[in-house]
Specification:
Elements (H helix, E strand, L loop, with lengths): L2 H9 L4 H24 L8 H31 L4 H30 L7
């Protein structure tokens, strides 16, 4: 992992690794669904799990925000700089939204193109 990316990932706090895992699962699901629909021509039974993961990502990012704010107030109480807590809060939220917004758009495209089989 490049040094700058590693530093950014570490600055995001403990919420970033689970967010990365959820993002990996989400985009793997979207990629396999897209392949199945557009290349193989087969509709999928449901996009329910994709929708759940898209909804959960911003909430999980909010957990990172809360963790960062706790760090911020701890730093203020100790008389040190609150900058690291603010950075942790913003990075976690940014990462979660950067994963969720394109995935939401991708899911909507799949739904509108008839990727979901009607029962």
């Amino acid at each position: 992992m490049p040094e700058a990316l590693s530093a950014w990932f570490a600055a995001g706090g403990p919420a970033l690794p689970p967010l990365a895992g959820v993002g990996l699962v989400l985009y793997a699901l979207l990629a396999t669904t897209t392949w199945r629909v557009w290349v193989e021509g087969r509709p999928v039974p449901s996009l329910g799990l994709v929708r759940v993961l898209v909804a959960v990502l911003p909430l999980a990012g909010s957990l990172g925000t809360v963790g960062g704010m706790i760090g911020l107030f701890a730093a203020l109480g100790a008389g040190s700089s609150p900058a690291s807590g603010i950075g942790e809060a913003l990075i976690a939220t940014q990462y979660a939204l950067a994963l969720a917004i394109p995935a939401f758009a991708w899911e909507r495209v799949l739904t509108r193109r008839g990727a979901v089989a009607s029962c």
